[in-house]
Amino acid sequence: MSLKARKVAIIGTGLVGSSTAFSLITQGVCEEILMIDLNKEKALGEVMDLNHCIEYLNRNTKVRVGSYEECEDVDIVVITAGAPPKPGQTRLDTLDLSVKIAESIVNPIMNSGFKGHFIIISNPVDIIAYHVYKISGLPKNNIIGTGTSVDSARLKNFIGELLNVDPRSVQAYSMGEHGDSQMVPWSHVYVGGKPFYKVIEDNKDRVGDVNLDKLVLDTAKAGWEVYNRKGTTYYAIATSTVAIIKAILNDENKIIPVSTLLDGEYGEKNVFSGVPAVLNATGVKEVVEIDMNEEELTKFKASNKIIREYINRVGK
């Protein structure tokens, strides 16, 4: 009996790419990881360092330097390579260069015969994910942007700190753009099954007046708070990415907020946006449509309008 090794290729061996690989091997998610970078010596250095971990882990994951031509039988390609924003820029300001980088990666990978899943981390992630969908020719469910997965984790962390509860006991989603225009449907935020609105109403003496707009702003700016202190973020996004990879490789049917193509959901079409989605071996099995109120839906659509404006700029 032969078993197919589950393979993940990581494009870009900077801090995000290497942290993603480290998270994959420490969690024992797949059997083989290909590290691909234009700087082959950097890729080799990361491979060597990662292989030196194996002695003290619970399984031997094969990690090696790879190439685009070897991606034919890879299950998942993670694209981390992109143009990092400079001080004072937003993620959207990096669009033009990130588009060129994405094209230089996706075209040779598709030429290899690749038929797996792309997971896009590169910013601006919603627009780059849409562009990868267009140029790859793969089905929409095979293209997944990390989207608001990390924003939702940050939001839950803030709520957990506010209420002094484990953030994993909070159910909450940040939705829309992975950027400044993201929004939170507060009517669907729960803590231990109790509506967040009711939680703060019943605990005024403990939490005081909660500024929901500030919580959204803090969530959107959290990455920049990290960036301003250490130069970039990588642990959180790497772990979010590995959660997506596990949901696919293990056929988990797990709901994670990711950037995916909307095709009528929420009344939106032809845009990649951060929404809760069911992930399994097919990629995005389906989008979860939560019943937002009118104010929340207006904010969500406003965020999608910004994403769509930038999508329309690509190629012009």
Automatic annotation (TrEMBL):
Binding site for substrate: R91, N123, P124, V125, D126, D151, S152, A153, R154, T233
Pathway this chain belongs to: Fermentation; pyruvate fermentation to lactate; (S)-lactate from pyruvate: step 1/1
Example of a GO MF term: L-lactate dehydrogenase (NAD+) activity
GO biological process: glycolytic process; lactate metabolic process
Main location: cytoplasm
Catalytic activity as recorded in UniProt: (S)-lactate + NAD(+) = pyruvate + NADH + H(+)
Domain Lactate/malate dehydrogenase C-terminal: 148-313
Residues noted as binding NAD(+) in the record, renumbered to the chain: 12-17, 37, 42, 68, 82-83, 104, 121-123, 146
Signal as UniProt keyword: no
A Gene Ontology cellular-component term: cytoplasm
Alphabetical list of SUPFAM superfamilies matching this protein: LDH C-terminal domain-like (SSF56327), NAD(P)-binding Rossmann-fold domains (SSF51735)
Keyword entries, A-Z: Cytoplasm, NAD, Oxidoreductase
EC number: 1.1.1.27
Residues forming the catalytic site: H178 (proton acceptor)
Protein's cellular compartments: Cytoplasm
Domain Lactate/malate dehydrogenase N-terminal: 7-145
Function: Catalyzes the conversion of lactate to pyruvate.
Family classification: Belongs to the LDH/MDH superfamily. LDH family.
Assembly with partners or alone: Homotetramer.
Protein name: L-lactate dehydrogenase
Lineage, top ranks: Bacteria, Bacillati, Bacillota, Clostridia, Eubacteriales
Underlying gene: ldh
